[in-house]
C-alpha cells in the first residue's frame, strides 16, 4: 500500500478541480444523450424534455413537472417551442435550484449529479409494441385453415371465398 503524501491528500481533498474536469467530459456525453431524446437532433421540445427527466428518474417532490414547465418557458426564445443545447445547459442551472432540495447536495454537486443522471438515461418508448409481437385473437380468427364446420367449405385454404353461399339458419317454429 502506498503512503499518503501531502500532494495525494491535496488531490483527494480538492474535489472542485476534479469536478470541473469531469463536468467537461459529462457535457460531451450529455450532448450525445440530448440528441437521443430529441426528434429534431439539435433542439429539444418541452414534451421531449419531460420524457427525458422521467426516464432519468430526476423528478422528485420539489423538482416536479410543473417546475420543469416554468423553467423551460423562462429559457426558450419567443416564438419557438424548443431550446438548443446551449439553452438547455442554462435550463439545467434553473432546475438545479429545486434538485438541491430533493437530493440535499450543494448546488455544484447537485448540478453534476443531475447532469450525470440525464447523461446515462436511456429513452423508453411507451405504447410501441416490439416488432415480433402479434395480436393472437385476430390472427386466429382470420386464419381460414382453422375454420371448422360449414365455414370450412366456404373458404379456400388461402382464405379467399370459393363463391359458395353461406349456410342459412331457418326458424323452424
UniProtKB/TrEMBL annotation:
Entries under Pfam families matching the protein: p25-alpha
Q: Which GO terms describe its molecular function?
A: tubulin binding
Name the InterPro entries for this protein.
EF-hand-dom_pair, TPP/p25
Single GO biological process annotation from the record? microtubule bundle formation
**What's the family?**
Belongs to the TPPP family.
User: Which named protein is this?
Assistant: EF-hand domain-containing protein
Amino acid at each position: 500500500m502506498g503512503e499518503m503524501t501531502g500532494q495525494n491528500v491535496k488531490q483527494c481533498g480538492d474535489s472542485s478541480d476534479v469536478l470541473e474536469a469531469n463536468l467537461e467530459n459529462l457535457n460531451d456525453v450529455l450532448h450525445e444523450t440530448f440528441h437521443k431524446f430529441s426528434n429534431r437532433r439539435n433542439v429539444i421540445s418541452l414534451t421531449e424534455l419531460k420524457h427525458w427527466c422521467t426516464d432519468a428518474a430526476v423528478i422528485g417532490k420539489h423538482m416536479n413537472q410543473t417546475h420543469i414547465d416554468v423553467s423551460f418557458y423562462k429559457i426558450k426564445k419567443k416564438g419557438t417551442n424548443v431550446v438548443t443545447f446551449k439553452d438547455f445547459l442554462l435550463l439545467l442551472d434553473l432546475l438545479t435550484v429545486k434538485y438541491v432540495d430533493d437530493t440535499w447536495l450543494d448546488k455544484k454537486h447537485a448540478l453534476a449529479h443531475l447532469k450525470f443522471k440525464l447523461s446515462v438515461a436511456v429513452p423508453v418508448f411507451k405504447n410501441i409494441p416490439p416488432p415480433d409481437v402479434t395480436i393472437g385473437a385476430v390472427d386466429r380468427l382470420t386464419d381460414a385453415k382453422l375454420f371448422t364446420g360449414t365455414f370450412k367449405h366456404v373458404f379456400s385454404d388461402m382464405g379467399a371465398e370459393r363463391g359458395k353461399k353461406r349456410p342459412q339458419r331457418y326458424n323452424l317454429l
